[in-house]
Amino acid sequence: MDNLPRLKDIKPFVSTRNACKLCSPLGASVALKGIEGCVPVIHGSQGCATYIRRYMISHYKEPVDIASSNFSEETTIFGGAENLKQALGNVIDQYKPQAIGVSTTCLSETIGEDVPNMLKQISSMTEGHEWPELFTVSTPSYQGTHMDGFHATVYEIVKHFAQDGELYKVINLFPGFVSPADLRVLKQILSDFELDYIMIPDFSDSLDNGAWDKYYRVPDGGTPIDRLRLCGQAVSSIELGLFNKVTAGGKNNSGINSAGEWLEKNKEVPCHQCVLPIGVSATDVFFTHLEFLSANVTPPKYEKQRARLLDSYADGHKYVFGKKAIVYGEEDLVLGLCSFLDEIGVEVILAGSGANSGELSEKLKEYCPENGEGIKTMCDADFEQINEQAHLLKPDFIIGNSKGYYIARDLKIPIIRVGFPIHDRLGGQRIKHLSYEGTQELFDRVVNAMIEHKQENSPIGYKYI
After folding, report:
1. 3-state DSSP call for residue 238?
2. Residue 267 to residues 22, 230, 253, Cα–Cα distance (Å)
């Protein structure tokens, strides 16, 4: 009895308040929207699919159809096999999809649904029927974040579609969870390097389409399935981001950390990883990889973009140098943004994320040579924890998604909106973050936010700064 902790020594449990992350099936749904002709099916309650649609529609401003197996109390007790069969049949009849990706939820995972076996049984019961490609991904929200769901889905897509064959002169690009505008920037860059590529996933059109004259149940865009089959025959893969680890059941998948590493181990496709190319230094590294893979020098247009960016750094240096910032969001985005801010002389005083890889602090020290040692990191954080620290640390601005707006409002400081979700502004899907072009736009936004804040809070009201 003497060894038992005393009641006063036990730290009281504090629940999450406004989590700095989203659910795993949401990340899975975004990835599935990047496959041509693919319809996501959420194996769980209707509320899960509704929540995901709400978040995606308000950010991307596009119609987002996500099916559900619609669990009820009875389904929760007796299992959801029949519901899943009916959901798949309805999706096939109404959408005529090329592929269906089934993402599990907390509910279906908790009762132990064996979805891979269910899909086998359902397809075997209807022999002679032509089924679309069927695959599933385990995405319980009590384990991980939307980024875990995104990376796990990309991993399963590669495992399902990659085929053996003769070496094909193409590279795989795994861009990560970036904006449709960023995906278009990356595609243009690879084309300018004269590289044939397979982008996995590619939601640059499916989640940012033009105006329609009629409603399309399955929007245009996405990586074609016949291209996905070639990813195992590629000459190389590039993964943007360093936090692509895939977990299953709380454990790493046999030592394989990502889709690119799976291809390297199982298909002998070399994998190159690099931090998101935000800022001059990180973009230089990315372009070095492309020069090596293409055997071409960087096209002159990008040399000019780089030169203009450096010139703007000099022009705007006096407005941002020594400013203090709080950065929050997905770990890869946080790392890329902190590296960029470190490059322009901004002191990042706090880097927060709802994820908890255990590696963010060390990566910040590596990629932020000026200030990395001094960055306070908060992992598995919620916005109330970030808010409490913000009131203590007194930043000059915060940078992240819309969910942190109330912190900036309370502190009366600017918020630079980046990443996902952006619910309170138009054009979140068109924000560029990557390469010299995206960095230029981001730098201009940061500088102008500082100038505007000074103007609005000055008794003089400067017209010329």
Report:
1. strand
2. 32, 11, 16
Q: Residue 42 is inside which H or E element, if any?
A: strand 38-43
The strands making up 133-137's β-sheet, listed across from edge to edge, are 67-68, 38-43, 99-104, 133-137
369 vs 339: CA distance, rounded Å:
8
Q: What is the DSSP secondary-structure string of 140-179?
A: -TTSS-HHHHHHHHHHHHHHHH----S--S-EEEE--S--
Which stretches of 229-359 are DSSP H helices?
259-267, 280-294, 300-320, 331-343
- Residue 250 CA to residue 208 CA, distance in Å, equals 34
**pLDDT at position 3:** 52
The 10s digit of each residue's pLDDT in 152-211 is 999 999 999 999 999 999 999 999 999 999 999 999 999 999 999 999 999 999 999 999
Angle between helices 435-456 and 331-343 (to 10 degrees): 70
Beta bridge partners of 348: 325
Give which of 320, 459, 461 is closest to 397, Cα–Cα: 320
The amino acid that residue 446 corresponds to is V
The answer to whether 176 and 276 have CB atoms below 8 angstroms apart is yes
Pairing of strands 99-104, 171-174: unpaired
Confidence category of residue 10, pLDDT binned at 50, 70, 90: very low
For residue 276, count other CB atoms closer than 10 A to its CB.
Answer: 28
Q: What is the pTM of this model?
A: 0.94
pLDDT tens digit string along 216-253? 999 999 999 999 999 999 999 999 999 987 754 344 44
Query: What is the C-alpha separation between 237 and 263, in angstroms, rounded?
Result: 8
Q: How confident is the model at residue 377 (pLDDT cuts 50, 70, 90)?
A: very high
